Amino acid sequence: MNWSISFEPLISWPLLALVLVPLALLALVGLWFRQRGGVLRFVALLALAAALFNPVFLNEEREPLKSVVALIVDRSQSQDIGDRTKQTDEALAGLQQRLGRFKQFDVRVVEAGKSDAAEERTETRLFGALEGAFRDVPPSRIGGAIMITDGEVHDAPPGAPDFNAPLHALITGNDHEKDRRIRFENAPRFGIVGKPLDMTYRVISTENEAGPVDVRVSVNGEQVSVEHATVGQAMPLQVTIPGAGRNIIELAIDREPGELTDTNNRAIALVDGIRENLRVLLVSGEPHAGERTWRNLLKSDASVDLVHFTILRPPEKQDGTPINELSLIAFPTRELFVEKIKDFDLIIFDRYQHRDVLPILYYDYISEYVEKGGALLIAAGPEYAGEASIARTPLMSALPAMPTGEVVEKAFYPRLTDLGQRHPVTRGLDGSSTEPPHWSRWFRTIGVQNPQGEVVMKGADNRPLLLLDRKGEGRVGMLLSDQGWLWARGFEGGGPHVQLYRRIAHWLMKEPELEEERLTADGRGMVLEIRRQTMADDPGPAQIITPSGKTVTVKLDKSEPGVFLGSVQTSEIGLFQVANGDLTALAHVGPVNAPEFADVISTENRLKAPAEATGGGVRRLASSTALGSDVTLPSIVPVRSSGEASGSDWIGLRTTDDSVLKAVSRVPLFGGFLGLGLLLLAMGSMWYREGR
């Protein structure tokens, strides 16, 4: 029961003052001058005032509210090390049992660190979970918080948290843990393909070792060297970037006896390989309307260094002009095709024919260049079917098709073959999805026989139009029409000449994204995404080896012709190995070198400052001599807001004085006959005294 008094005046306060103040002054004057009946008049005035003020006794029935206690449980991946999970489960069960004995506490259990979100999987964010637990709780009702964690908390404030209640931390693990880890000190994001990249790394030990340790260096899953490092010192490292695109540099050290975990015995760096400018030699032979199409395209590509020669004056043309008066530059045949041929990534013959500009032996050099990994593109016109065709030179061994001597002059729409719909060079060309294709017609096709390699485009009468072939370690492409310039000029709406020509050139120069058979994997958040590029109808499932060594099979579904996709949700962070057929790929899921594994030693230091600032404390669940998972829980004591909240073997949680009003009983003092009788008695006494 809660009794209180309240005034409910019968008239407004201003009117009440207007009536009582003059009467009170008269009564006080009578008392001052000791007039007869002054006391009775004053008492009658008090009775009248009490009746007008209408005092009421209130009896409130209240239900006390509970203090809210947050029990924050760390379920991050570092808690899976050793006996920490067992210690956490035992402590949670024991605390729930002890807190259940106190009816004044509302216990909220929040498990943090097991979300699928990448941020929460890579960092232990207990104070964010604590804020969420108290979001709907008034400050006066917060009783305190208890955290069960290994102490590796990445969002701990430097001082007290934003609530006025004790914070207690119970630390899992043991204080004699041992661990060794490796990390990159300096790892550039980009590197030039084929060039050494300077990096630095450091091996760190909890025992402040200073001895040597072997570090295995792997690039894209293949071990390239073993470095000798000194523990605790920054060590230099040079790695050659093997290819364009994403490259994974991995450092690994062996696990030491008694080491807590080997999860952080690896360090990963993701380096994007960038090619130096590709060097292309373009030789234009027979002048034609589309002579500058290839030149304009290649000059517009910032990644290409173009050397372009146009044969305007063949050797047999003798007009008597002195050599010193010619403004034409002599074709440097020996320099280009003997001395520096290996420096070029691609050679293009655009409507070129043999006119003794190149010695016949040089065609052998070009064939050898292709066999050893070079790239050759023949943009053929009518001269390819003539007597001076380069197919009649030693270059014929590198060509994917021989001419029949026929030149078909007939309008046609270039179309993709069945292979072309799956091939990355022609797959999804803009306008290819309709019939007829949404691009302009061409009017000339060069006839060939016995085409080798892959026919990805067809011309008039379904004749081969675009051939792509491999010769030894190199590649050869052949475009059997000189009408591509019609697309560039916008004839009948034009066509995707830039898209097609650029893809052809980059496929010949072995751009990884344009490989027919390619397997790639990438981590997006906590999802591993797999992409399989193939010319086959069904590549089959992909096999995944997780960082923990588990094997998972993932089905690959067709996304578009020649492309199959698959994905898998994972809770593990680290390097995944993906295989499909003879192809393999590596992918890292989650942030590289996540803070969750940067330091896995359990510690009291990170939570000590915020806990002590609130009057709480930090203690270990296992004693310093314990080798197992036995835990010792402190006693729980309800305390007032001004009392101590922590002791050597107990922790305190604050109780609240807040309550909920359930009902109110009203008892008017001057209500009914009692009030009327008291008022009449006072007035009658005053009247009686005045009448004498």
TrEMBL record:
Domain of life from the UniProt record: Bacteria
SUPFAM superfamilies hit by this protein: Class I glutamine amidotransferase-like
Record carries keyword Iron: no
Keywords from the UniProt entry: Membrane, Transmembrane, Transmembrane helix
Spans through the membrane: 12-32, 39-58, 669-688
Name of the protein: Glutamine amidotransferase domain-containing protein
Native source species: Rhizobium loti
